[in-house]
Amino acid sequence: MRELKAEVIGIGTELLLGQIANTNAQWISEKLATRGISVYYHQVVGDNPGRIQEALTLSAARADLIFITGGLGPTDDDITREMMAEFVGRPLIKSEEAMKQLAAFFTARQRSMSENNKKQAQVIEGSTLINNGVGTAPGMIIPWQEKFFFIMPGVPNEMKMMMKETVLPFIRETYDIDDVIRSKMLRFIGIGESQLEMEVKEIIDRQTNPTIAPLASDGEVALRLTAKASTIDQAERLIKDVELQLIERVGDFLYGEDGDSIASAVVKLLEMKGLTLSAAESLTGGRFSDWLVSVPGASQVFKGSIVTYQNEIKTGVLEVPTSVIASDGPVSHACCYQMAKRIKEKFNSDIGISFTGVAGPGRFDGHEAGTVYIGIYQDDEHYAVEKYQFVNNREMNRTRSVKKGLEQLYYLLSSMK
Amino acid sequence: MRELKAEVIGIGTELLLGQIANTNAQWISEKLATRGISVYYHQVVGDNPGRIQEALTLSAARADLIFITGGLGPTDDDITREMMAEFVGRPLIKSEEAMKQLAAFFTARQRSMSENNKKQAQVIEGSTLINNGVGTAPGMIIPWQEKFFFIMPGVPNEMKMMMKETVLPFIRETYDIDDVIRSKMLRFIGIGESQLEMEVKEIIDRQTNPTIAPLASDGEVALRLTAKASTIDQAERLIKDVELQLIERVGDFLYGEDGDSIASAVVKLLEMKGLTLSAAESLTGGRFSDWLVSVPGASQVFKGSIVTYQNEIKTGVLEVPTSVIASDGPVSHACCYQMAKRIKEKFNSDIGISFTGVAGPGRFDGHEAGTVYIGIYQDDEHYAVEKYQFVNNREMNRTRSVKKGLEQLYYLLSSMK
Description:
homodimer, alpha/beta, Molybdenum Cofactor Biosythetic Enzyme, Chain A, Alpha-Beta Plaits, Maf protein, 6-stranded mixed beta sheet, 15 helices, 17 strands, 42% helix, Competence-induced_CinA (chains A, B), CinA-like_C (chains A, B)
């Protein structure tokens, strides 16, 4: 099949005012990518005649399939329908079919149709109506000079239903698409983006199918392999080959793939080793527990935690000796060790992990914001307390602490016989 | 001031593959709107030389201020720096300043700088460096034909810090912006979007400055008031007038404004009433505690929590009577009541809140996924246990539970004398 170029245009002043993000463009692009259709551009313009015409002209000059969302509502500033008609030079005509659907919509909801809504039953001559199962505005498929414009409402669930039920099947039929694209994400910890890329640069450079793209997001790095082939099997084989080469180089840092998270990797390891975990959280305030519990099945290995957000809870409930707090303070190696040891014993789990530190803003008890101790306790022969100095804001310091804790656990568990 | 036209360009193939949404464009647009700068276009292109040049040419032809995010990373597919240099026809030169900041970044994190990272210290001749407080890639302010290009990393928190600390102040100075736009968000709970809209429709309809926009996001609803004026005072007065009219109608449902969250509203009320809180979390798994701890100053009123993710912890640590679990099970009115009472007593707080239920996927102990009990206990005369049936996925059920708990607390606290 010849390569299809796609473009997504979002129309709506609310997008330019930053009141909403253009998640429609993301969703449409993702669906097209998995079908082997390349999206080269996104555009966003407001409800403005001149700029809408400009956007349409631009997209028509460079794309085969143009997906337009927004501006189909009943109000006067919704002008996508009119602008599209003007661009393709065809009149808007009243559609009995659309009118029927509109009427049905309002009857079903025992609401009466306003005059404005009737405007939504106008369709461009020569276009195909896209039924709106969820809302009032119908969409349209508009053929023009061997291209297709697809106009759909900006309301995400209305657009998604139209894409799934009408637009995507239409594209598949029209171009009998056989090409498929498969993507696989390989996830790493304990290695920076630039170091990882250097290690595998040579593989990346000689690779065209699948392509390999390094991605970094705070504290984590991943490689995305994307293969294009005529069958799913073939695409997956292409990916597998390269995956093996990569694992040979940087397999030590690989902790999971695709939807995996460090939390799910840790839960998996705990299950494999048949071990249980409990946590004592101070600055992380429950976030570590929350991340673990987000993994379905965590209840088998995670017993729970105590959030000791005040010293009296560290001593009173967790039973960290008051002498330790008195001598070393709550943000200390000694307190962190005690927290990990006590939670392990109190919850009768195989491993206890503890977090204490200063999230910020501002110093606390003589420590910089970002000073964090993380402890892992199995028994008096097997424990570790690490000190970190993060340099971010309150929320990021707390998230980094959780990630570091999970990273430490991951190393410990994967090194166990 | 002459009208400034702005444009936002997102660079990155991951955007076109739909792996992430272009939230950077939303955030930047929102910040510019509140400063009276009109954003007319968003563009997104991949890491492709030709298309990046095309996007730059287009934006330069129609905007005064061009904000570019993405493609500043250390890897080879990050080419924004080179493309920008090519476009303005100036060389990339090594910046000692940038090198110093990079070095400092790695020293602070006890990591060593890779060869790739050094590429990030290259800046365009004649540009002004934007310090990156959080990551490695510095940004640049590039003056060109009475326009300015601002290039920033795609990592949201790095971009946001650069905008707040460098770019926005720079724009304000450069154009001594006098025409200001002020926005205020009024946040409501316990009222649906359509009901709220009906209550205040008449006010919305006759309002032009400030404008009033209703916004809804899962379980919460807000009204955004946006006023344009020549002075901040004037804009704020315009907003105040309308705010008072709105409060007269729907003030009972108003819990906060702007950056407030239900969590911060609850913390504020606890401080005002001089009360302390503790939590017993089962299905929420620490998320309730995490949300509270996210509010700076929470440590004054939030003592902490116990995450009882297994029955043996409910009975062994929290000391819920085994008979209760045996007779009613962990997901029950009785267990929820006990959890709230025990945590209140154990942590010696004024109020105890408890969460137990089935997050899903799948049924548990004879209960549908989404079955949730939330208990609030002060003393044997003052307590409440509510049952809810949510219908979402695991994560949404857990989040809804936390929000409901905060909502219940908010009502209780605001009704206290």
